[in-house]
Amino acid sequence: MKLGVYGLGRFGAFWASRLADFTDVVAYSRTPKSGIDSRIELVSEDKLVDCDAVVLCVAISAMEDVVRRLAGRLKPGALVMDTCSVKVYPVSVMKRLLPESIQILGTHPMFGPDSGRNGITGLPLVYSPVRTDASADSFFRDLFNSMRLQLVEMSPDEHDKSAAYTQGITHFLGRVLQDLHLEPSPMATLGYSKLLEIIEQTCNDPEQLFLDLQRYNPHTHEMRESLKSSLDRFMTKLKEVPGLPA
Ligand SMILES: O=C(O)C(=O)C[C@]1(C(=O)O)C=C[C@@H](O)C=C1
């Protein structure tokens, strides 16, 4: 199966390289940069649509435009796989815009260039087959198993519900902590050092990812409200402690 990666931004370049360890990969980038893995052949968009499977590595907010560009040009039977950090929205875009003859696979690799810097063995990849035939499904399960990833199969909605309280809350708190301008300190405790690591881990990603996670996951609004209520509960509780300023 010939894989074509669409988008060679920070994540796309990393993912194309990891895939190239196991299979042939070509890639298309609107703005090609230097430093791309030499095993990956750069192709035009017209050439990319000839692939058996197209792996979309684009911002969540760019999904609709990109899927529209590809929809009428893919080979019947080809598969489109997204890698977005939310699942309900991109899957609904693919179902709405891609013809019935095109297969659809939702995925979310739960890692990236920072967390996968020292290898991706054992890291989770959320797998949501939406419209796949047995042979494509088994190709991708085998591929991800060969990459020694931990496949976590769930529906797009199950993914978004859980992700709001795992990745969504982490990125939200990372941005809040960054806003407080916390600095490294010679008296840093282990816990404090981990807080600084969270800032580094989340704020290294483009702000667009943060905004898209909060906007396109239907469950992150509830997460933010729960977080605010929890902060308020602790503020109120402390007001009741004798001797603390109101
Ligand atoms: O390792 C990185 O570079 C990441 O930021 C990966 C990270 C994250 O840790 O939140 C970011 C986006 C992906 O959806 C999955 C994981």
Automatic annotation (TrEMBL):
<dbReference type="Pfam" id="PF26213">
    <property type="entry name" value="TYRAAT1_C"/>
</dbReference>
<dbReference type="InterPro" id="IPR036291">
    <property type="entry name" value="NAD(P)-bd_dom_sf"/>
</dbReference>
<dbReference type="InterPro" id="IPR059064">
    <property type="entry name" value="TYRAAT2_C"/>
</dbReference>
<dbReference type="InterPro" id="IPR003099">
    <property type="entry name" value="Prephen_DH"/>
</dbReference>
<keyword id="KW-0560">Oxidoreductase</keyword>
<dbReference type="InterPro" id="IPR008927">
    <property type="entry name" value="6-PGluconate_DH-like_C_sf"/>
</dbReference>
<protein>
    <submittedName>
        <fullName>Prephenate dehydrogenase</fullName>
    </submittedName>
</protein>
<dbReference type="GO" id="GO:0070403">
    <property type="term" value="F:NAD+ binding"/>
</dbReference>
<dbReference type="InterPro" id="IPR046826">
    <property type="entry name" value="PDH_N"/>
</dbReference>
<dbReference type="GO" id="GO:0033730">
    <property type="term" value="F:arogenate dehydrogenase (NADP+) activity"/>
</dbReference>
<dbReference type="GO" id="GO:0006571">
    <property type="term" value="P:tyrosine biosynthetic process"/>
</dbReference>
<dbReference type="Pfam" id="PF02153">
    <property type="entry name" value="PDH_N"/>
</dbReference>
<dbReference type="GO" id="GO:0008977">
    <property type="term" value="F:prephenate dehydrogenase (NAD+) activity"/>
</dbReference>
<feature type="domain" description="Prephenate/arogenate dehydrogenase">
    <location>
        <begin position="1"/>
        <end position="246"/>
    </location>
</feature>
<dbReference type="InterPro" id="IPR045011">
    <property type="entry name" value="TYRAAT1/2"/>
</dbReference>
<dbReference type="GO" id="GO:0004665">
    <property type="term" value="F:prephenate dehydrogenase (NADP+) activity"/>
</dbReference>
